[in-house]
Design goal:
Distance between the termini: 32 Å
Order of helices and strands: HHEEHEHEHEHEHHEH
Helix content: 40-55%
Strand order of the largest sheet: 1-7-6-2-5-3-4
Shape: globular
Largest sheet: 7 strands, mixed
Radius of gyration: 18 Å
Structural class: alpha/beta
Strand content: 5-15%
């Protein structure tokens, strides 16, 4: 029954994604009239796809607080590739992702199609290039979403924040909003830190197929009360980390975790 549920969901996801791609391709005609109109269309399609996908995979969303209006910078803790789906259901904006995701089969195409900004964190010049793109996105009135931990985790704690992507916000004193993510699975199912979070040596195909076998799971998204400003990116990162850590309820105790290397997802 569990595997049948997963297979049925995979078929529905394929149909939904094919429809989304067709809408995105059709929307490219808007680019002939207005780039801004095409970007708005692309975000609407992405959000509609995210909401439908969340329903298909059995995700039950619990949202607290208010999403920031664009333009915005929004940072959140990072637990899984599903974080992107959760946030996309509530906010319209572009995500920042690690560069190799753009080459993944199917997912790479989809992330490129919805305007994701990619970065190779190992190259210093990439940060400079991306900062120009972030500034341009803000000036166009867009939302920008990224995960300053730089890696996903099992949800035992909030890992240290990397500050380079906060340079544009600090330099221009832009407000940065924040949100906290966590997951829960029903009684009798594997705990969320194993079933939903993506970390350690977990591989994407196996993990996603296991997610699809769950009857349902809960995603809790809590937006912070107010945006944060600072003229120093490291100070800004520390303040945001403190606020998210205060708001975050650990999903597992560190001593319960096996010894794995954390695996980045974005």
């Amino acid at each position: 029954m569990r595997k049948l549920r997963a297979v049925v969901r995979l078929v529905l996801i394929a149909v939904l994604t094919a429809a989304g791609v067709l809408l995105l391709l059709g929307g490219r005609l808007l680019a002939l009239i207005s780039d801004a109109a095409f970007r708005r269309w692309r975000l609407r399609v992405f959000q509609g796809w995210a909401r439908a996908l969340a329903a298909i995979i059995g995700m039950r969303l619990v949202v607290r607080g208010n999403a920031p209006p664009p333009p915005f910078f929004l940072v959140a803790n990072h637990l899984s590739y599903l974080d992107i789906l959760v946030l996309a259901t509530q906010v319209r904006g572009v995500f920042v992702s690690r560069h190799d995701v753009s080459g993944w089969p199917v997912i790479g195409f989809l992330t490129r199609a919805v305007g994701t900004l990619f970065i190779n964190r190992e190259l210093a010049r990439e940060v400079v290039r991306l900062n120009h793109l972030l500034r341009a996105a803000w000036e166009r009135g867009e939302g920008i979403i990224f995960f300053p931990e730089g890696t996903s985790s099992a949800g035992a704690e909030i890992r240290p924040f990397k500050s380079p992507l906060l340079h544009v916000a600090a330099e221009n004193l832009y407000p940065v909003s924040y949100a906290t993510l966590s997951y829960r699975t029903p009684a009798g199912e594997p705990p969320a830190h194993l079933a939903v979070c993506w970390w350690g040596e977990m591989t994407f195909p196996d993990h996603f197929f296991n997610v699809l076998q769950l009857p349902r799971f809960e995603a809790l998204l809590t937006f912070g009360d107010a945006a944060v400003r600072a003229t120093d990116r490291k100070l800004l990162a520390r303040r945001l980390h403190h606020l998210i850590a205060q708001q975050f309820q650990p999903m597992v105790r560190p001593e319960e975790l096996s010894t794995f290397n954390h695996q980045s997802t974005t």
